[in-house]
Amino acid sequence: MDNESREYSQQNFSIPHDVVPLPSQGIFYKNKKKSLKVGYLTATDENILMGGGDVTMNLLRTKIYEPDIKAEDLLEGDVEAVLIFLRNTAFGPEITLNLTDPQTKKPFQATVTLDQLNIVKGETPSEDGTFITLLPKSQATVKLKPLTYGESVEINRMGESYPQGRVVPKITWRLQKEILEVNGSTDKGEIAKFIEQMPIADSKFIKQFMEKNEPKLDMTRTIITPSGEKLTTNVGFGADFFRPFF
Amino acid sequence: MSVLGLTFFVLSSDYRKGQIDEFFYLKTLLNISYQDFLIMPIFIRKYLLNKWLEDNQKT
């Protein structure tokens, strides 16, 4: 951790904060921290929210009061938990969603609360926070790790700077970060070659496997539409997440 | 595009006006300094304003 962040985190220990339990329960981190001290949003942070740049990263760096935790090293599910805490303590747990009635195709608004969120629990990882699984097509045994928020941001940035008109190999980049070992080998060259030749079925299997086993909050909500149907929707971190009143 | 879909994860300019209005009332009614306003958790700020309104609507 850089000195500036360390000093910032430490000098903020006296500022009002709360402890946010992490969906990952810290299994995936070296320090095994199960929770984080997170400050409440203030008017100063509202100025961050009104600004440009990487608002999420700036907010996380400012509000996480843990000297040995870097925001970019957190898993996406843990980042979501911190963002929900910040949102709920500042603006309340109600969130208004803009939806479309599947029967009438007419738009409607629904309000849901994000106060009690279940953790989606998958397979328990090994002590070092990795999963070992057998791929269905190639029958290779791979060791996988979930991506951190920083790694996902990096992949997206690489995609944005990729030459226009060419297919961005985001899945390959993702697999290169997720796969740590193939059939016991940790050789980067061998892993890269394996990914290049990987059958689509195996690539899809890894995607589904990680979706099922990455610790995260259950953000799905079931809503009754104006036509009386049940609609299950995923509450995303979209335009209105931090803009509830204006 | 951000990972969590937070590209528009920002507050509007209308929000800034609302924020300054809230400071105006906290300063005028409760003599809260701008420095205190900046570091005050938002839920406390909202509570103070609502409490003042609630108490003064009773009388």
Would you write up a description of this structure?
The complex is a heterodimer of chains A (246) and B (59). Chain A contains 8 helices and 11 strands. With 246 residues, chain A is an alpha+beta fold. In chain A, the strands form 5 sheets. In chain A, strands 6-7-8 form a 3-stranded antiparallel sheet. A two-stranded antiparallel ribbon of chain A has the order 1-2. In chain A, α5 (149-160) packs antiparallel against α6 (170-178). The longest helix of chain A is centred in the middle third of the chain and has 16 residues, at 76-91. The radius of gyration of chain A is 20 Å and the shape is globular. Chain B has one domain. Chain B is 69% helix and 0% strand. Chain B has helices at residues 13-30, 34-39, 42-58. Chain A binds chain B through residues 15-16, 40-44, 46, 49-52, 54-56, 76, 79-80, 83, 89-91, 149, 152-153, 156, 160, 236-239, 241-243, 245-246, and chain B through 1-6, 8-16, 18-19, 23, 37-43, 45.
Q: What is the number of strand segments of chain B?
A: 0
H/E element order of chain B:
HHH
What is the rounded distance between the termini of chain B? 51 Å
Task: Name the helicity range of chain B.
Answer: 55-70%
Shape of chain A: globular
- Gyration radius of chain B (Cα, Å) is 15 Å
> In which range does the helix fraction of chain A lie?
25-40%
Largest sheet of chain A: 3 strands, antiparallel
Unreliable residue stretches of chain A: none
Cα distance, first to last residue of chain A? 37 Å
Total tally of structural domains of chain B: 1
| Stretches with pLDDT under 50, minimum 5 residues of chain B | 5-9
Total number of domains of chain A: 2
Largest interface in this structure: A-B, 36 and 26 residues
Shape of chain B: globular
Mean pLDDT of chain B: 82
Class based on secondary structure composition and strand pairing of chain A: alpha+beta
Number of strands of chain A: 11
Beta-strand content of chain A = 15-25%
